[in-house]
Amino acid sequence: MSPFQPDLVDVWIFRTKKPGLRMGFGSVPGPIDRRPGSAMAGDAAAAAPGFAGAVSGTEILLLRRSPGRILPGLWQCVSGSLEAGESVTDGALRELSEETGFGATEIEGFFDLDQVNQFHEPSVGAIVTSAVFAVRVGAGSEPVLSHEHNAMRWVSPAAALETVVWPAYRESIRRIEENLLDAERAIWFELTLEGWRARR
Q1: Which of 96, 109, 143, 169 could disulfide-link to 24, CB 3.0 to 4.6 Å?
Q2: Burial class (CB in 10 A: 0-12, 13-18, 19+), 124
């Protein structure tokens, strides 16, 4: 084997009310909080495509990159660089916490999407690699945005596919739909918060 560390980690966040879905780490699903101000943050709430139709099913969290950053206005997932000496899964969970405030209390499932992306990044003049993960959070969970993003949307998977730009993003969303919403299939992708396979 020739293992290597990726440059980046991406973490997609989803929540669901689907009955019978296996909830990791001993959690129990609850109702989505629809009180004023709780479902969204930022100025994109009214324009979020597919939002109303996602209430009873699965929702994907999209984050909008702030002005002053590379690709301002891009809708994306959590994304960031690994720190020196950091494991890939530790980096994914750290970036998740830094960009959304989600930690062990909110996480109901942590998954490896079995996806590694490579793309040319003009700002560094080289090919960059990212390892892709997903987390399921409780139905009423809401992020606390960092300075890196200035708006967020909870949208249906179909609306997420329409909103995101990069083909690799659409592939990640499809993998969540195809593999993580089925309890028997999801267990094969699930990780512990320590980064080990949940099924061994």
Answers
A1: 109
A2: exposed
